[in-house]
Design goal:
Helix content is about 60%, strand content about 5%. The chain has five helices and two strands.
């Protein structure tokens, strides 16, 4: 996503209307709505509370980043030529198999 494209396509408004929270990086400053952004500034200049919020924010974002890295590593998804409904079903099946293997 691009911060300049998000308002054009109404993404922050759609997230807010649906009640979906989104944890973004500092580049999305000013996105508004339910888009959560960490405090800006150097770690040493932030208050203890702001540092705690940023640390929590980073932990939440890490889960999403790891999930995206896993999806990108699945070579199967690069070759799919089907609709989004079928892709969702395939991703759920592959994820279930991967979780069962671990």
């Amino acid at each position: 996503m691009d911060i300049k494209a998000t308002p054009t396509h109404g993404i922050p408004a759609a997230l807010t209307q649906a009640g979906i929270r989104c944890w973004a990086d500092k580049a999305y400053q000013g996105a508004g709505g339910t888009v959560r952004i960490p405090y800006r500034g150097r770690w040493g200049k932030l208050s203890t509370g702001q540092r705690a919020v940023n640390a929590s924010h980073a932990k939440i974002r890490a889960i999403g980043e790891q999930a995206m890295a896993t999806l990108k590593s699945w070579r199967l998804l690069r070759k799919l030529r089907c609709g989004t409904t079928r892709v969702n079903t395939i991703v759920k099946a592959v994820l279930a198999l991967q979780l069962a293997a671990h």
